[in-house]
Amino acid sequence: MSLASGSLCVLLITIPSFPSSFGGEIWISAQHPALFHLLSHSHLLHIKSTTTSAKMLSKSLLFLASAALALGTPVERTVSCRAPMPDPSLPLTGGAAELPPPPAGLELKVIALGLGIQNYSCASVGADAVSTGALAMFYDISLLYPESGPNSLTIEKFNQLPAFALNHHAIPLHFNDSTVGRVEVASPGASLKRPFTRAAALDLGEEYGKLPFLGHHFFNTDGAPTFILRRGSFNVVAAKKASVPAPGSADPGPMGTGAVAWLALDAANSKGATFVYRVETAGGNSHGCSKAAGQDSTSYAAQYWFYGPKS
Ligand SMILES: *[C@@H]1O[C@H](CO)[C@@H](O)[C@H](O)[C@H]1NC(C)=O
Ligand SMILES: *[C@@H]1O[C@H](CO)[C@@H](O)[C@H](O)[C@H]1NC(C)=O
């Protein structure tokens, strides 16, 4: 299933003689068979749900419509479809170098927001900080991409999502209060026992709404970036293939350390996706090693684009 192919249709059912909350729109997106949206005319009822409950909702709406018809109440139905939207295109840094395009034969599977920490180690004062991995919670932002459904955003707003989340929401990890061996006491590391918080939506308030939980990002015991999404239906173990600096305009993060590089990651033999990009990064660069030797962590956010074989 491609995220980008197929047209988007809207079925509008209106029962003029009923209170406005009985009218509604069902969004049927060919590119997301799982996407059904019911929007009441009054906008009091705004439900964005999983396939099953949305199907039930659309069924009950059709039931209401047929009940109204049986009573001789007029029902208006309009279906409008528009042309397939162009494939979502990977953001560009606009700099001298860009990441390589996705390998041929792959399609976009999901776009995620990652919100977490980048970990570093300082061997001694004045040394170069060495990256020791990352931990992040992932949220599904595919349907916020422009023209992907009723809640989709402008491209500008979509691309500002990582910086907004980083600056307006706490990092959804369990932190370790200990300052022992920390380079920057104000930037704790994650709990080693239980780093991830509850698998719940990320509530970004009126600005962006609630982003559905998607999964986890961590480094496995071999030190490889790993992504477990949708309860393991994506099990992606990756290796860095290419890296380009984040644009100068990227959000430097709450401590002003700068945005981590954009990456292309190869994940051959993985489940669900075989190529991953980290783009639109905010924060995450190390605090440096001028203060102390030890472990360091910096909060960051980014968009992750997952590509896999066409299905
Ligand atoms: C840093 O990240 C690595 C890789 O995911 C993780 O194994 C480790 O527990 C993290 N350490 C801290 C202190 O956050
Ligand atoms: C917290 O950090 C201290 C110091 O590094 C470590 O000894 C302890 O095991 C950590 N606790 C947890 C729960 O991660």
TrEMBL record:
Top-level division of the source organism's lineage: Eukaryota
Organism expressing this protein natively: Trichoderma simmonsii
Protein name: Malate dehydrogenase
Leader sequence residues: 1-23
Protein keywords: Signal
Taxonomic path: Eukaryota, Fungi, Dikarya, Ascomycota, Pezizomycotina
